[in-house]
Amino acid sequence: MAYRWKNTLTQADVTPKGLFLNRRQLMAGAGAMMGAGLLGGQVRAQDGLEPNSFEDITSYNNFYEFGTSKTDPAANAHMLTTDPWQIEIDGMVDNPGVYSLAEILEGQTIEERIYRLRCVEAWSMVVPWNGFELADLLTRVGVQDGAQYVAFETLVRPEEMPGQRRQILEWPYREGLRLDEAMHPLTLMATGIYGEPMPNQNGAPIRLVVPWKYGFKSIKSIVRITLTDEQPPNTWNQILPNEYGFYSNVNPNVDHPRWSQATERRVGGGLFAGREPTLMFNGYEEEVASLYDGMDLAEFF
Amino acid sequence: MIDQLNKTLRRLPEWPLYILGFVPAVWLLWLGVNGGLGVEPIKALEHELGVLALQFLLATLLVTPLRRYAGLNLLKFRRAFGLLGFGYVCLHLLTWLALDMAFLWPQIAEDIVERPYITIGMAAFLMLLPLALTSTKAAIRRMGLRWHKLHRLSYLAVVMGGIHFVMQERSGPFSRWSIWPWR
């Protein structure tokens, strides 16, 4: 069902395309004063949350399939072929099969969701995604009784993904959600940003977005979705189980063993961006806290 | 050939090295202010300054082996390498305190105590402090043998700096910021 969740940020809060492309220059020059004065209402969100520029979102990425530095994905992702694209949906579903992207999108209403994105590395952005609810896809393929988890896999194609030519991670990249997390109205299958098709470095052509969890849970360039009754493995947990859990909910009170999660840096603010406090469940506490009633979030981190 | 090189080096003054050594710092700051370090310039600046610090400090440790095994005499420039390394350590620390942590003192204190890589980095900084303070010709003369003993701390400090560097990597064993100058 589309529009089950109402943006706290609205269309009017999104930086208009003409503006996001050259906002940096606008702000830098004397025109900044004039520009901000004329367009201030549109540029700045009511609650102070302004989406990051297209440039921010597409030039600072963690996507190890294209290399481990933040700039590698933007430099290398052009090699990726995203058409044709297929997703295999299997496991405990009524209609398993290999679906083309067109079949996946059939009948889905693409809406805009402006979400905070909080990386486990203590930086964050605000991204205006375009997509549809994962729940709508799962309902269409028919989740069987007894299914409790959803597992996801990213494409493996070393000839187009140079990072995969080395064993820096165990490929394919894997992620998973509990079924109730997957069915939550906030959980999005995203196909675009700022109304543009999903840039390759951001996980083209289709990726998961789970805004109350650390960014690495939002798996990119998905080729397989499996319904299962067992908690699926997730890549970072497999590598460093003491540092990255299955749940990985954004939580300022549970630190990463090597750094604090109490604050974060909003990317795009330049040398003097400073830090801001990290919000419980990344600001979506009201919507998702009930999913974890009675759970010790320090144990199930 | 080495003799010729040593002769040439002996004639070169020490002071231009300090100026040359700080060119990368000025360059980085310029890049940071002008968007040349990407959309998250703070981390980039912090990392680059830290890597430069380690590189200069490693250079000081290379002076003795180079002289012993290759016959190359860089002794005259060792103090400059060391002080430049310490200078970059200070800039790195200042970037962390002011830009990265925005002077959030409670979180800074917690990090120093609770994050082993930060504890180790701070310890290395504190070890370098007396070495920098006793780097003058007068101090060397006054302290004599004790100066040599004290300055053996540099080995420990550099090793700890290296550990600090490796530990902060998000993913441990594989490194995304290589220390090598040709990275």
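Residues 28 and 45 of chain B are 7 Å apart (CA to CA).
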